[in-house]
User: Which sequence fits this backbone?
C-alpha cells in the first residue's frame, strides 16, 4: 500500500507570545519553535501503521522553506521512505487553496493508494487543504478521521463528529483522509532510524516543475490584530448562594449552558 | 507473528561513535560493577527497576534507543528520560562515569528528531518561546517583586539577584524570592534585578537534550548580563548556579556566581547580618543534588541553620551530604510526575519526616516545589521552607 | 444582488444549533446586501425541520429524499452543486462543523468559488467580501480579503451569532432530486461514544476537581453537577494518586492538555503542572477556600468560599436557568 | 689522534625501517676523525661483535662508536667486546639511534638526518674520552633488614644461613607481622601461625641475626657496600635481660586499650606482649596509655608486681649505630582506612568489619578464641556478606590498583565461616574473582561447592543499618535484578596500602616509590627485587600487594641478590665520576654543600676540594655548581659537552 502524507512545519504558538510583525500581516517568528503540525504527525503515524501491516511505501510531502527539510527528515526517521519538499520560496503568498493546487500538481505524478493529511494546521487553522486536494485529484475523501480499517481497495473509516458521536463510512480507494489527533499514538524515532534518515535524500521541487501562473489564491491577509481579551480575575462575592447565582448568570450570559 | 528478539544482535558502531561525540565518552571505563544502579534514587522506588549499569555497555554497542519495535522503543526512551540527573551514580562510580551525560548524548539526538516525551517537548518550546518553562508571560517575570521595593539592576551594583523561573512565577516559590530580597535589604546589600530582560538559565532544557535552544538561551542571558554590566550574580536556584558557574563560561560568560546560602552564610559570619529572633523548631536540612554533589556546597546551608538560635538542627541519617537522596525534580522530573508508586519524592519525604522534624529546610526551588506539592496529599504537619525564608523570619 | 444561502445542518432527526446561527448571520448579510436569505434543507421527512426554521428565511429550498437522511458530503456535494449552478447565490454559509469541514472545501473547489473556513464574521464592504477568522491557536485574529467572484462559500464558526427570533414570510420550495448515494463513499451508521469513555480533551465544558473535595464520596456531587451542565469531570494529580479518577482524567503536564470553552476548577489550588494543562480554556472559573491559591491568577471568575456550600447552590441555579 | 671506528646497527627493521642506514654510513665515513664505518643487521649478535673486534684489530682503531639502541641495554656488551679486542672499555660509546630516533619518528629523511647528528655528537665526545678503570670499593658483609614480617623473616634467614650477619629491625614489639594475625592461609588452609612461628623462633635463636624489635631506622648514610645506619630502639621500660616473660605485669596492669594485633576487636594492657607466641616474648610499655607516664608516676603496679625487678620506667630511647653493606626493605602493608568508605557505614556500624578483623575472629588466638561472634552484640552471625574491591580498583575515589589478595582471602573467609557456622550463609559480592596462583582456581571451585557460597556479581552501593541487621543494596549485574540483602555482618575486603611511614622511610633511603607509596623496583620484569638505588633491595608487600607465596619468593630473591653482592670482598664502581682540577679550584666549598652523597670534602690544608671516589655516584651536581670549572666529570667534560652541542646545532 503506497501512502502519501502531506505535512506542514508550523510555528508552535500554543505556549508562546505571538506578536505581529511590522507588515501587520504576519507574525514575528524569530523566537518561536517550529515543529510538525500536530495532526500531521498522527497522519504520518497512521501511514506507518498501515505500512507495517500491508507493506508499501510512504512518501511525505511538504510545501515549505529550507528548514522544512528538518521536519521531513524527522518523518523519514519515523518511518517514511521518501520525502519531497516543494520550495515555498518559489511561490509568493500561499494560502490553503494554493497549497492544495501545488500539492495536486506534485501528487498527480505519483502513484498512491491513500493520501493522508492532518485535519487542521495550528497556524492558519483552515482545515481545508486535505479536502480541497481530494477534490482536485478527483478522489473520495473523509475528514476528521479517527479510525481506519482498510482492505485492498476499500476502507471503513470513522469520522469524529461532535458530542462524542462518530460517523462510520465505507470508502473506495484511492482516497484521501484528513486525520484527527488521537487516532493513534505517534511513535518515537529510534537512533538507528535517525541515522538512516540522516543519510536519505530529500527531493526538492521548485517552480520549474509546477506552473505557478495557473495557481489561484483565494485569500489574502489584510491585517492581523490581537483579539480583545481581558484576563483579570473577577471575584464573585457574597454568601455562597449569592456568588453561585452570579456565576450561573454568567454562564447563561455567555451561552455556556 | 514471530516473537521478536528484544536485543539488537549487531553492534552499531555508527551510533556508538555519534553518542561518544555527543558526550558519552566515558563508556569504555565501565567495568559493570552495578554500583551506580543501587546508588540511583530509582533503586529506592519500590516498584521500579532502573538498569543504570547497562547504559554504558549498551552505548558502547550502539544499542541505545534502537529497538525497531514501537513498544520496546517507548520503554527505552522512557528509561532515557527517567534519569533525574542527580549524579548519585557518578558520586559512587569507581571510574567517574557520568551516566547522566551518557544519557544526555542520546537525548540530544532524540530531541533533534522529535522523539522525546511530549511534556518535555512543551517545556523546551516554552523556554524557547517565552523564556521560561511554564509558558508564563515574559512581562510578568518581575511580578513577584511588585511592592517590595526591589530596584532594577544598575551598573555598579554589587549583585544581580537572579531568582530563577520558579521563584519568579510560581506562587509558593515567589515567597522565597521575596524573603531573599527582604534579607538583602535588611543587610543593606547593593543589588538589583533584571526582571523582563532575564531568561530561564536553560538548565533543565539542556538536561533534556535541547542543546541548541540551550545555547540560544545562554547567549541571550550572557548578553543581557554583560549589556547591564553585571559582574556578580546571586542565585536562589542551584540549577542556575551550576549552569552559570560551570556551563556558561563555555559560551563566553564572565561573571561571578554565588548561591544565596553561600552569601547569606558569609553575611552572618562577618556579622553583617544580625539574627534577632529565635526559631524554636526542629529543622531537617535536605541537600539538593545540584548544590551538594555537583557543587560541593554542604556546609554553608548548615552554618546558616546552626547559627539561628532555638533551631534544633537535624540530619537524615545515612542520606545526607553527598549521599543525599534526590527529590526527583531534576532533568525534567518536575514535569514528568511519574505515577504515584513511582515517585522518588515520596521516599525522600519519608526519610525527612522520620527524623521527627517540624520543618524541612531546602535550598532549591525544585525541591521546595516537589516537597510542597507532595506533602499536601500526606497526613502530616511537616512544613517545607527555603533557608532564606527561615532566616528572614528571624531578622 | 444575488441571494445569501445557508445550509441547514441536522443530525439524527434534529436540526443542529449551528443552523440557527447560520440563519441569523445570513439574515444580517441579506439585510446588508439588500438581498434575500435562502435556506437549503436537504433531508428526509423534512416537514418537522421546515416547521422549525420557518420564518427564519425568505425561502427554503427543500430536497426530501432518503439519501439525505444522514450526512454524506459526496451526496450533498452532488445535489448542492446542481442547485448552486442554477441559483448562483452571492454568499453561501455552511457551519464550521464536522459536516461543513467535510463538504465546503470540496464543493467550493468543484464550483470554483473562492472560499474560506472557520470564519468568525463575514462582512461585505463596497461589494468586497471580507472575513474575520482566528489564527495561531486563537492568539490572533486575521481580516482576510477574498478573491473577487460572483459567488462565495464560507464556513462559520459556532457561537458568534446566537440564534434570534425572526418572523420572515417564508416561501417553501420543494425540489425533486434523483441523487443517489455514490458507491465510492457510503454512510454506514452513527457510532455513539461508549458510555464512561470520556475524552476530556474533546468536551466543551470541563469541571476540574482537586484536593479540596477531600473525600471520594464527594465526587458524586461533582459528577451530578457535570451531567447537569453537560460537562465532564477532570482532575489534578492528587485525585489520580488517590485512585478516585483514572489517569486519563488528569489535566496537567503529566496528564492531558485541554482547551474547553469553560473550565471550572473546584478545590484546585493550581500547581503549575496543573495550570499548564488548562490555561488554554476560554473561560476559567475557580472555586477555592484559599484566596491566595494560584489558580485565581489564571481564572476569569473566582469564588472564594467553601466548595461544599457553593457547588450545590450553583447546581440548583444552573438548573433553574437552563 | 685515535682512529675512530663507527658501527651502525640496523636492529632488524627497528632502526633501518625509519633511518636510511646507507646514507648514514656514507655521511659518517666522511666525518673528520672517522677512519672506519660499517653497518650490520644485528651488531649485538656474535657476528656483529666479531666484526667490531676484527675492525679494531685490523684497522687499529683507538676508539669505537656503536650506533644502536639505548646504552642501558647493550653498553656492557659492546664494552666487554672491545676489551676482548684489547681496547679500554671507556673508549667505546653508544650512539642511541633507536629509542631516541627511529622509534619516535616516522619521516625517514628527517630521522636519518637526526641519526647522523646523534652519531656525530658521540664521535665528538669520544674524541676526548680517556682510558679509565673502575673504582674498587670494599664491601661490608653485614645486611640490614627493615621489617620483620614474613618477608623480613624469610630474607633474614636466607642471608644469615649463607653465613652473613643480619641486623633485623621491627617497629612493633614482636616480629611476625601480618601473617601472625591470620588464621588459616589459602589455598591450602594450613594454620598461619603454625607455619610462621617456627621461623620466628629460628630468627630469635639464629647466631647470625641480631634482632631489634620496638625499633626503627633513624638515619642512614653511605653507599652500596658501606652504609652507616642509626637505629632507634624505643624504650620498652622493660629490662629484657631480667624479664622472663612471665606475664604477671600485664595481668595486673589496670589499663586496658584496644589491641592493635586484634584489630581493635580485643583488648590489651598498657604493658603488653602483643600475642602469646610473640618474639621476643618480652612485654613493652605503651607510654601513650600507661598511667605512670600519663599521670606523673601515679601507678607503677607492674613495677611492684614484677618478681624480677625488670621494669625500668627510666629507660630511655637508645640509638644504636651499625655498619652494613646492603639493606633489604620489607615494611609490609596495612589496610586502607575504613572510614573512607562512608556509603558502607564502615567505621560507623560495628558489624561492618575489614578482612583482618575477620581473620582475628577466625583465629583461635583471637578475641573470640576462634568463634565467630559479631562485634556489636556477640551474636553468631547467620548471614555474612563479603564485599570485594573496597577501595581497590576505584581510581575515581580511592585507589586504582587491584589489591591482589582479596579475591582469594574472601574465598577462604567464606569457606572458613561456613566451617565455623555450618548453618550460616556466606554471600560474596564481587566484580571478578581473580585466582591467578597455583591451585587457587581449584580452591575457589571447591570452596564454592563445598561451602555453598553464593557469589553475586556486583558492587553494592549502600549498607544501611535496619534494627539489628545490615541491609546491602546491590544489583546483580548478571541477572539485572535489584537486591536488598539483609545480613548480620559484613566483611569488607579493604584495599592494601603501604605501611604508614613507608613514604618517610623511602625518603630517608632516597629510593623511589610509586604514587601510592609502594617501593619501586628497578625494572618491573627483569629486576623486580632491587630498587633503582644500588644496595637497596625489596621484599614483600612493601613493593606491591602480594600473597604469602609471592612474598616469600621475593624475600628469597632479595636475599639471593644481596648474597651476590656480598660474594666478593669488593665491588666495582663506575669511574665516570667527578674529578677536580686542582689548579682551578678556589676552595669555595660549594661542591661540598651540593653533593647529595657526601662524596666531596675540603682538603683544609691545601684549601681545595677533593672527591671521595668510593662515594661519588657521578650525578654531576657538583660539576654544574662549580663556579670555576674546576670540577669535571670524567669522559663528560665541559669541552666534550660543548663539542657535542656544537655539532648538533650545526
Assistant:
Amino acid at each position: 500500500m503506497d501512502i502519501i502524507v502531506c505535512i506542514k512545519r508550523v510555528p508552535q504558538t500554543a505556549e508562546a507570545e505571538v506578536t505581529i510583525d511590522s507588515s501587520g500581516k504576519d507574525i514575528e517568528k524569530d523566537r518561536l519553535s517550529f515543529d510538525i503540525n500536530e495532526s500531521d504527525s498522527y497522519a504520518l503515524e497512521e501511514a506507518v501503521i498501515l505500512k507495517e501491516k500491508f507493506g508499501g511505501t510512504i512518501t511525505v510531502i511538504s510545501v515549505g522553506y529550507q528548514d522544512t527539510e528538518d521536519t521531513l527528515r524527522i518523518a523519514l526517521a519515523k518511518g517514511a521512505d521518501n520525502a519531497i519538499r516543494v520550495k515555498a520560496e518559489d511561490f509568493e503568498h500561499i494560502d490553503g487553496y494554493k497549497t492544495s493546487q501545488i500539492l495536486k500538481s506534485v501528487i498527480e505524478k505519483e502513484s498512491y493508494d491513500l493520501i493522508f493529511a492532518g485535519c487542521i494546521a495550528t497556524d492558519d487553522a483552515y482545515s481545508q487543504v486535505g479536502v480541497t486536494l481530494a477534490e482536485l485529484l478527483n478522489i473520495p475523501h473523509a475528514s476528521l478521521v479517527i479510525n481506519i480499517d482498510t482492505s485492498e481497495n476499500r476502507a471503513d473509516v470513522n469520522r469524529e463528529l461532535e458530542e462524542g458521536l462518530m460517523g462510520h463510512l465505507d470508502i473506495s480507494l484511492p482516497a484521501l483522509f484528513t486525520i484527527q489527533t488521537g487516532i493513534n499514538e505517534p511513535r518515537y524515532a529510534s537512533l538507528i532510524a535517525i541515522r538512516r534518515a540522516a543519510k536519505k535524500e530529500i527531493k526538492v521541487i521548485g517552480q520549474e516543475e509546477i506552473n505557478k501562473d495557473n495557481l489561484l489564491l483565494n485569500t489574502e491577509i489584510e491585517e492581523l490584530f490581537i483579539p480583545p481579551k481581558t484576563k483579570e480575575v473577577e471575584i464573585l462575592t457574597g454568601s455562597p448562594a449569592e456568588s453561585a447565582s452570579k456565576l450561573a448568570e454568567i454562564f447563561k450570559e455567555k451561552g455556556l449552558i | 507473528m514471530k516473537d521478536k528478539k528484544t536485543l539488537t544482535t549487531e553492534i552499531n558502531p555508527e551510533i556508538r561513535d555519534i553518542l561518544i561525540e555527543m558526550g558519552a565518552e566515558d563508556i569504555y571505563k565501565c567495568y559493570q560493577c552495578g554500583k551506580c544502579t543501587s546508588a540511583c534514587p530509582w533503586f529506592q522506588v519500590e516498584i521500579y527497576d532502573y538498569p543504570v549499569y547497562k547504559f554504558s555497555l549498551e552505548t558502547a554497542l550502539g544499542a541505545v534507543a534502537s529497538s525497531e519495535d514501537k513498544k520496546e522503543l517507548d520503554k527505552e526512551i522512557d528509561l532515557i528520560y527517567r534519569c533525574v540527573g542527580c549524579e548519585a551514580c557518578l558520586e559512587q562510580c569507581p571510574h567517574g562515569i557520568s551516566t547522566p551525560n551518557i544519557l544526555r548524548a542520546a537525548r540530544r539526538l532524540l530531541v533533534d528528531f522529535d522523539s522525546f516525551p511530549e511534556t518535555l517537548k512543551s517545556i523546551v518550546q516554552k523556554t524557547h518561546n517565552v523564556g521560561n518553562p511554564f509558558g508564563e508571560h515574559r512581562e510578568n517575570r518581575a511580578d513577584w517583586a511588585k511592592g517590595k521595593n526591589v530596584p532594577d539592576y544598575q551598573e555598579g551594583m554589587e549583585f544581580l539577584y537572579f531568582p530563577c523561573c520558579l521563584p519568579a512565577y510560581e506562587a509558593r516559590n515567589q515567597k522565597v524570592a521575596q524573603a531573599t530580597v527582604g534579607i538583602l535589604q535588611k543587610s543593606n546589600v547593593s543589588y538589583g534585578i533584571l526582571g523582563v530582560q532575564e531568561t530561564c538559565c536553560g538548565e533543565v532544557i539542556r538536561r533534556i537534550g535541547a542543546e541548541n535552544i540551550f545555547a540560544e538561551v545562554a547567549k541571550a542571558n550572557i548578553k543581557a548580563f554583560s549589556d547591564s554590566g553585571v559582574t556578580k550574580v546571586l542565585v536562589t536556584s542551584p540549577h542556575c548556579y551550576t549552569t552559570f558557574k560551570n556551563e556558561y563560561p563555555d559560551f563566553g560568560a564572565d561573571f561571578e556566581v554565588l548561591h544565596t546560602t553561600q552569601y547569606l552564610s558569609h553575611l552572618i559570619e562577618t556579622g553583617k547580618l544580625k539574627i534577632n529572633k529565635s526559631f524554636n523548631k526542629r529543622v531537617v536540612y535536605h541537600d539538593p543534588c545540584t548544590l551538594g554533589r555537583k557543587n560541593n556546597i554542604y556546609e554553608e546551608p548548615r552554618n546558616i541553620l546552626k547559627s539561628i538560635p532555638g533551631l534544633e538542627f537535624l540530619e537524615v541519617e545515612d542520606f545526607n551530604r553527598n549521599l543525599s537522596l534526590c527529590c526527583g525534580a531534576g532533568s525534567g522530573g518536575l514535569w514528568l510526575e511519574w505515577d504515584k508508586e513511582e515517585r522518588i519524592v515520596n521516599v525522600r519525604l519519608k526519610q525527612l519526616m522520620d527524623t521527627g522534624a517540624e520543618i524541612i529546610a531546602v535550598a532549591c526551588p525544585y525541591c521546595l516545589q516537589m516537597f510542597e506539592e507532595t506533602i499536601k496529599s500526606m497526613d502530616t504537619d511537616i512544613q517545607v521552607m527555603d533557608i532564606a525564608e527561615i532566616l528572614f523570619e528571624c531578622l | 444582488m444575488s441571494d445569501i444561502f445557508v445550509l441547514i445542518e441536522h443530525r439524527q432527526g434534529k436540526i443542529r444549533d449551528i443552523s440557527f446561527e447560520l440563519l441569523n448571520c445570513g439574515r444580517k448579510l441579506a439585510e446588508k446586501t439588500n438581498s434575500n436569505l435562502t435556506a437549503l434543507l436537504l433531508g428526509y421527512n423534512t416537514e418537522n425541520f421546515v416547521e422549525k426554521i420557518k420564518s427564519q428565511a425568505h425561502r427554503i429550498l427543500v430536497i426530501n429524499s432518503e439519501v439525505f437522511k444522514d450526512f454524506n458530503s459526496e451526496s450533498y456535494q452532488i445535489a448542492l452543486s446542481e442547485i448552486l449552478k442554477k441559483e448562483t447565490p452571492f454568499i453561501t454559509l455552511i457551519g464550521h462543523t464536522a459536516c461543513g469541514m467535510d463538504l465546503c472545501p470540496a464543493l467550493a473547489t468543484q464550483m470554483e468559488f473562492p472560499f474560506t473556513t472557520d470564519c468568525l464574521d463575514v462582512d461585505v464592504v463596497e461589494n468586497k467580501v471580507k472575513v474575520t477568522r482566528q489564527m495561531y491557536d486563537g492568539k490572533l485574529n486575521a481580516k482576510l480579503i477574498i478573491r473577487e467572484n460572483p459567488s462565495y462559500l464560507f464556513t462559520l464558526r459556532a457561537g458568534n451569532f446566537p440564534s434570534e427570533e425572526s418572523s420572515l414570510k417564508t416561501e417553501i420550495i420543494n425540489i425533486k432530486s434523483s441523487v443517489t448515494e455514490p458507491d465510492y463513499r457510503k454512510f454506514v451508521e452513527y457510532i455513539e461514544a461508549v458510555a464512561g469513555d470520556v475524552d476530556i480533551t474533546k468536551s466543551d465544558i470541563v469541571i476540574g476537581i482537586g484536593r479540596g473535595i477531600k473525600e471520594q464520596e464527594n465526587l458524586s456531587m461533582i459528577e451530578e453537577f457535570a451531567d447537569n451542565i453537560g460537562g465532564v469531570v477532570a482532575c489534578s494529580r492528587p485525585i489520580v494518586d488517590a485512585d478516585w479518577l483514572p489517569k486519563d482524567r488528569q489535566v496537567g503536564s503529566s496528564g492531558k492538555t485541554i482547551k474547553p470553552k469553560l473550565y471550572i476548577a473546584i478545590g484546585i489550588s493550581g500547581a503549575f503542572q496543573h495550570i499548564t494543562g488548562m490555561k488554554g480554556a476560554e473561560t476559567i472559573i475557580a472555586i477555592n477556600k484559599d484566596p491566595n491559591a494560584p489558580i485565581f491568577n489564571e481564572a476569569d471568575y473566582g469564588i472564594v468560599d467553601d466548595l461544599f456550600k457553593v457547588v450545590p447552590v450553583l447546581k440548583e441555579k444552573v438548573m433553574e436557568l437552563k | 689522534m685515535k682512529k675512530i671506528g663507527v658501527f651502525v646497527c640496523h636492529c632488524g627493521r627497528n632502526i633501518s625501517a625509519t633511518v636510511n642506514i646507507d646514507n648514514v654510513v656514507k655521511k659518517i665515513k666522511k666525518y673528520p676523525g672517522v677512519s672506519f664505518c660499517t653497518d650490520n643487521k644485528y651488531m649485538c649478535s656474535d657476528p656483529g661483535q666479531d666484526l667490531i673486534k676484527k675492525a679494531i684489530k685490523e684497522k687499529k682503531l683507538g676508539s669505537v662508536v656503536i650506533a644502536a639502541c639505548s646504552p642501558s641495554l647493550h653498553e656492557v656488551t659492546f664494552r666487554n667486546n672491545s676489551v676482548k679486542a684489547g681496547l679500554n672499555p671507556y673508549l667505546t660509546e653508544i650512539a642511541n639511534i633507536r629509542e631516541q630516533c627511529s622509534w619516535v619518528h616516522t619521516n625517514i629523511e628527517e630521522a636519518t638526518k637526526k641519526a647522523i647528528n646523534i652519531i656525530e655528537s658521540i664521535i665528538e665526545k669520544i674524541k676526548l674520552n680517556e682510558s679509565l678503570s673502575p673504582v674498587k670499593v670494599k664491601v661490608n658483609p653485614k645486611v640490614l633488614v627493615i621489617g620483620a614480617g614474613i618477608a623480613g623473616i624469610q630474607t633474614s634467614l636466607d642471608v644469615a644461613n649463607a653465613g652473613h650477619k643480619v641486623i633485623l629491625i621491627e617497629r612493633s614489639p614482636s616480629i611476625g607481622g601480618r601473617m601472625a594475625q591470620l588464621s588459616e592461609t589459602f589455598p591450602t588452609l594450613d594454620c598461619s601461625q603454625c607455619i610462621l612461628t617456627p621461623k620466628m623462633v629460628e630468627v630469635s635463636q639464629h647466631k647470625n641475626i641480631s634482632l631489634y624489635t620496638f625499633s626503627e631506622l633513624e638515619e642512614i648514610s653511605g653507599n652500596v657496600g658501606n652504609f652507616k645506619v642509626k637505629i632507634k630502639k624505643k624504650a620498652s621500660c622493660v629490662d629484657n635481660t631480667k624479664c622472663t616473660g612471665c606475664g604477671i605485669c600485664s595481668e595486673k596492669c589496670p589499663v586496658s586499650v584496644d589491641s592493635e594485633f586484634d584489630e581493635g576487636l580485643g583488648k590489651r594492657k598498657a604493658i603488653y606482649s602483643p600475642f602469646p607466641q610473640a618474639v621476643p616474648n618480652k612485654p613493652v610499655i605503651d607510654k601513650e596509655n600507661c598511667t605512670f607516664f600519663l599521670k606523673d608516676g601515679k601507678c607503677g603496679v607492674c613495677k611492684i608486681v614484677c618478681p624480677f625487678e625488670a621494669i625500668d620506667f627510666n629507660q630511655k630511647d637508645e640509638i644504636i649505630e651499625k655498619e652494613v653493606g646492603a639493606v633489604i626493605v620489607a615494611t609490609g602493608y596495612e589496610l586502607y582506612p575504613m572510614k573512607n568508605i562512608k556509603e558502607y557505614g564502615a567505621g560507623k556500624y560495628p558489624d561492618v568489619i575489614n578482612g583482618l578483623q575477620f581473620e582475628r575472629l577466625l583465629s583461635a588466638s583471637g578475641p573470640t578464641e576462634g568463634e565467630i561472634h559479631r562485634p556489636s552484640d556477640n551474636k553468631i552471625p547467620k548471614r555474612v556478606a563479603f564485599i570485594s574491591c573496597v577501595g581497590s580498583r576505584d581510581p575515581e575515589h580511592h585507589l586504582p590498583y587491584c589489591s591482589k589478595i582479596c579475591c582469594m582471602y574472601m574465598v577462604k573467609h567464606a569457606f572458613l565461616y561456613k566451617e565455623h557456622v555450618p548453618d550460616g550463609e556466606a554471600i560474596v559480592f564481587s566484580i571478578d574473582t581473580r585466582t591467578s596462583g597455583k591451585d587457587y582456581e581449584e580452591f575457589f571451585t571447591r570452596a564454592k561447592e563445598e561451602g555453598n557460597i553464593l557469589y553475586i556479581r556486583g558492587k553494592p552501593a549502600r549498607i544501611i543499618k535496619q534494627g539489628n541487621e545490615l541491609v546491602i543494596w546491590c544489583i546483580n549485574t548478571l541477572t539485572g535484578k535489584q537486591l536488598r540483602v539483609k545480613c548480620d555482618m559484613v566483611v569488607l575486603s579493604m584495599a592494601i596500602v603501604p605501611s604508614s611511614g613507608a613514604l618517610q622511610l623511602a625518603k630517608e633511603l632516597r629510593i623511589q616509590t610509586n604514587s601510592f607509596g609502594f617501593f619501586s623496583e628497578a625494572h618491573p620484569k627483569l629486576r623486580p627485587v632491587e630498587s633503582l638505588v644500588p644496595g637497596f633491595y625489596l621484599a614483600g608487600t612493601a613493593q606491591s600487594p602480594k600473597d604469602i607465596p609471592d612474598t616469600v619468593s621475593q624475600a628469597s630473591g632479595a636475599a639471593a641478590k644481596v648474597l651476590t653482592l656480598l660474594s666478593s670482598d669488593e665491588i666495582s664502581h663506575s669511574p665516570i665520576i667527578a674529578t677536580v682540577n686542582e689548579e682551578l679550584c678556589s676552595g669555595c666549598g660549594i661542591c661540598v654543600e651540593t653533593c647529595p652523597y657526601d662524596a666531596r670534602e675540603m682538603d683544609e690544608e691545601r684549601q681545595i676540594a677533593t672527591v671521595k671516589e668510593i662515594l661519588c655516584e657521578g650525578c654531576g651536581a657538583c660539576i654544574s655548581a662549580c663556579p670555576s670549572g674546576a670540577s669535571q666529570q670524567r669522559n663528560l667534560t665541559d669541552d666534550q659537552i660543548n663539542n657535542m652541542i656544537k655539532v648538533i646545532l650545526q
